[in-house]
Design goal:
Elements: H1 3-22, E1 33-38, H2 43-57, E2 61-68, H3 82-100, E3 107-112, H4 123-135, E4 141-146, H5 154-170, E5 175-179, E6 196-200, H6 203-217, H7 233-239, E7 243-248
Parallel strand pairs: 1-2, 1-4, 2-3, 4-5
Antiparallel strand pairs: 5-7, 6-7
Helix pairs in contact: 2-6, 3-6, 4-5
Protein name: PIG-L family deacetylase
InterPro entries: GlcNAc_PI_deacetylase-related, LmbE-like_dom_sf
GO molecular function: hydrolase activity, acting on carbon-nitrogen (but not peptide) bonds, in linear amides
């Protein structure tokens, strides 16, 4: 048995253990305004598609902020221009949003470099201004960003730190939550289950999430690989669960 097969088997066992632990967690309560912040185009669907559908159906306002264009998804793969990758991936974000019911006016694209999200970047000032504009005196606000200990990718961790710090200043009463994307793939054991919340999708919501995922992973670039890059099968399997796990941070 190859090392890859063994690692995938262990990862699946880990995911199953996490799912069993999360099975009886309470539902996530909703706010009038929810802001989803994704490091790359597709993280919002993997982590929060069920939640966003539920909020939109309840008449709540959802705003989506994408930090990077995901322009490094084909690094070391082919000679596709990075600007074209960004353009294509942003179009996929808009198409996926149509599946789960989010209008384009509520989608905001920033220009942090893929693989190089830093708080010192000038984009942080733009993000701060955008948050001020979106919140605009609202009191019932929730913000969602990737899990700080379980995501593995630096862009995910740095995004969480930047957003958390900005909301502490701009909207200190906002509820802050972490969502899970690569959390399922990496060996994360530092988990505060006391703060965990669950969104249990119905069949329709789950089917919509699967369609939105397909919007990202099915279209192929000229090289024959998805615009978003090739994602590990175990990662895709884990994120196609009919539930979404969140952690209340504040």
């Amino acid at each position: 048995m190859s090392n890859i097969i063994i690692k995938d088997f262990v990862r699946k066992l880990h995911v199953c253990a996490l799912r069993l632990r999360a099975k009886n967690i309470l539902y996530l309560s909703s706010a009038n305004l929810s802001i989803i912040v994704a490091p790359h185009p597709d993280d919002e669907v993997f982590g929060c598609c069920g939640l966003m559908q539920r909020l939109i159906a309840q008449g709540k306002r959802v705003e989506l902020i994408i930090m990077t264009g995901g322009g490094k998804s084909h690094a070391g793969c082919c000679d596709i221009d990075e600007s074209e990758l960004i353009r294509q991936r942003r179009q996929l974000t808009i198409r996926a949003a149509k599946e789960y019911g989010l209008s384009q006016e509520y989608i905001h694209f920033l220009d942090y470099p893929d693989g190089g999200v830093l708080e010192s970047d000038s984009q942080t000032d733009k993000l701060s201004s955008l948050i001020h504009k979106i919140v605009d005196g609202q009191n019932d606000v929730s913000v969602f960003y990737p899990h700080k200990n379980g995501e593995g990718w630096s862009d995910h961790v740095t995004t969480s730190n930047i957003v958390s710090h900005l909301f502490d200043k701009i909207c200190p009463n906002a509820k802050q939550y972490e969502y899970c994307v690569w959390f399922w793939f990496y060996n994360c054991w530092k988990i505060d289950w006391k703060q965990a919340c669950l969104v249990k999708m119905n069949k329709k919501e789950h089917a919509v999430k699967l369609k939105a995922i397909d919007v990202y992973i099915e279209p192929k670039a000229p090289c024959g690989k998805p615009w978003s890059g090739v994602l590990p099968p175990v990662f895709l399997w884990a994120n196609k669960w009919d539930k979404e796990l969140y952690f209340r941070v504040k």
